[in-house]
Amino acid sequence: MNLHEYQGKEILSSFGVEIQRGIVAQTPQEAVEAAKKLTEQTGTGWHVIKAQVHAGGRGKGGGVKLAKNLQEVESISNDIIGMNLVTPQTSKEGKKVHQVLVAEDVYYPGDSEPEEYYMGVLLNRATGKNMVMYSTEGGMDIETVAEETPHLIFTEEIDPATGLQGFQARKIAFNLGLKGQAFKQMTKFVTALYKAYMESDSSMFEINPVLKTSDDKIIAVDAKVTLDENALFRHKDYAAMRDIREENPTEVEAKEVGLNYVDLDGNVGCMVNGAGLAMATMDLIKQAGGSPANFLDVGGTADAARVEAAFRLILKDPEVKAILINIFGGIVRCDRVAQGVVDAYKAMGDAVKVPIIVRLQGTNADIAKELIDNSGLPVQSAIEFKEAADKVQAVLA
Ligand code: GDP
Ligand code: MN
């Protein structure tokens, strides 16, 4: 589950990581109030107005702007709230901005040498260890750095038995070229950041930029946080941070009815039981010349109600030209699933306008095939995987 910048910063701050302080606002009036309050708390004269959407690259899209007085806080907030922010990480349509973070300006006017670093904590799946990735080349173009000058990005792997050790924090500060007070602040920063990552059960923390001011403060200016959804039961307060306005509406609906659904770009909708079979089915569709419109795992209990719910989800996607249902009947019997497909189809009346290919294999597969074939519905059945693929290819041609 992804968080907004302001939520990520709240978590960071609760673990003692120094952050650029801010207050979130839903309207320009609230933004002005927030700015006044911040000035009282921090003494800041200038403010940064930052669009809160689940996408990076906001600065490049005009979603991060400096306001030098309260009029500018109001007018900039007015421009940003409600806009469709297009960044290198959003679709062409962009993302609607519902709220802004009004933050203290931490780049002192006249500060000739603010340094921007990059720092991320995430899991290295190849080694099975967490790692800190960091670079002196932080700021808005870290993707270019990663592509063109990858040697400028360092990684430090963390042993799960010992956690981040003191010498590792010092090594990171040293590699960033820091000395004196800044060195000390950076070791504190990394240590607190790693603790925040571990104890919040996150799968990614990305701070870009980490700012070093000319008076040697180390501050998290941005925060991109992904929490591990499987651990949310341990963090009720974080679970409440979910903002479904930022998520794919079909995926949200799927979650509500307990289906694992991921939206994709292709034209063949698929409904499968089991994640592994679902992956194999997507490969099969590719080989047949189509491309999957979604990943959908209906799970072990594919009864009529679930099949119907899954049908409805798939059909929300206007790109879908065919549906492939691929079910292995182990515990759930194929004839029950077939009955589910037939019932769901009938229940949906005219809503189903695309050809459907059903492949049922396993317990009672033969009875299931008969059920489908005798249903009088324009549903094609298949027993073999290859046969199903060929039928998909035929309807797409
Ligand atoms: P992103 O573009 O979505 O990654 O958003 P960031 O939060 O990283 O902000 C983008 C850029 O805005 C940063 O790289 C900074 O250069 C700039 N920025 C952020 N905070 C401040 C600030 O307090 N003062 C000034 N002058 N610039 C800032
Ligand atoms: Mn950033």
UniProtKB/TrEMBL annotation:
Its cofactor is Mg(2+). Residues 271-391 form the ATP-citrate synthase/succinyl-CoA ligase C-terminal domain. One of its GO terms (cellular component) is cytosol. Substrate binds at residues 273, 330-332. Residues 2-210 form the ATP-grasp fold succinyl-CoA synthetase-type domain. ATP binds at residues 50, 57-59, 106, 116. One of its GO terms (molecular function) is magnesium ion binding. The keyword Nuclease does not apply. Coiled coil: none annotated. It catalyses: succinate + ATP + CoA = succinyl-CoA + ADP + phosphate; GTP + succinate + CoA = succinyl-CoA + GDP + phosphate. Mg(2+) binds at residues 208, 222. GO terms for biological process: succinyl-CoA metabolic process; tricarboxylic acid cycle. Its EC number is 6.2.1.5. Gene3D superfamilies: ATP-grasp fold, A domain (3.30.1490.20), ATP-grasp fold, B domain (3.30.470.20), Succinyl-CoA synthetase domains (3.40.50.261). Keywords: ATP-binding, Ligase, Magnesium, Metal-binding, Nucleotide-binding, Tricarboxylic acid cycle. Belongs to the succinate/malate CoA ligase beta subunit family. Heterotetramer of two alpha and two beta subunits. HAMAP family: Succ_CoA_beta (MF_00558). Succinyl-CoA synthetase functions in the citric acid cycle (TCA), coupling the hydrolysis of succinyl-CoA to the synthesis of either ATP or GTP and thus represents the only step of substrate-level phosphorylation in the TCA. The beta subunit provides nucleotide specificity of the enzyme and binds the substrate succinate, while the binding sites for coenzyme A and phosphate are found in the alpha subunit. This is Succinate--CoA ligase [ADP-forming] subunit beta. It comes from Croceibacter atlanticus (strain ATCC BAA-628 / JCM 21780 / CIP 108009 / IAM 15332 / KCTC 12090 / HTCC2559).
